[in-house]
Amino acid sequence: MKKIAAVVAILAVLAFGSLNYHFILLDSNIKILKKVDLTFKDTFVNARGSKKYKLLLNPALVKAGVKDLYEKEGITIGK
């Protein structure tokens, strides 16, 4: 019974984390942004290579502060 409770607790923590945070995979590391709304949408986002500009077109990520993240990391998006 303790094992089942432990598994349920771990699953609850994972679900809570995926509802509350964006995990953004950049070229060199992973960044975490707090979500504005509780949703499973855009939990894991790939921003490697030429996909960086697409994040600036996503309203949920813009509200969460992806533009500030880019500025802090020194990432520039060219034409």
Overall description:
The protein contains four helices and three strands. The protein has a three-stranded mixed sheet with strand order 2-1-3. With 79 residues, it is of the alpha+beta class. The chain starts with a helix and ends in a 6-residue tail after the last helix. The longest helix is centred in the N-terminal third of the chain and has 19 residues, at 2-20. The protein has one domain.
Fill in the keyword field for this structure:
alpha+beta, 47% helix, 4 helices, three-stranded mixed sheet, 79 residues
User: What amount of the residues lies in strands?
Assistant: 15-25%
Whole-number mean pLDDT: 88
Strand order, biggest sheet? 2-1-3
Radius of gyration: 15 Å
Distance between the termini: 57 Å
Q: Number of helix segments?
A: 4
Number of separate structural domains: 1
Question: Structural class per helix/strand content?
Answer: alpha+beta
Q: What is the succession of H and E elements?
A: HEEEHHH
Helix content: 40-55%
Mind describing the biggest β-sheet? Answer: 3 strands, mixed
Runs in which pLDDT lies below 50 for 5 or more consecutive residues are: none
What is the number of beta strands?
Answer: 3
Shape: elongated
Question: How would the blueprint of this fold be written?
Answer:
Blueprint lengths: L1 H19 E5 L4 E5 L9 E3 L5 H4 L3 H6 L1 H8 L6
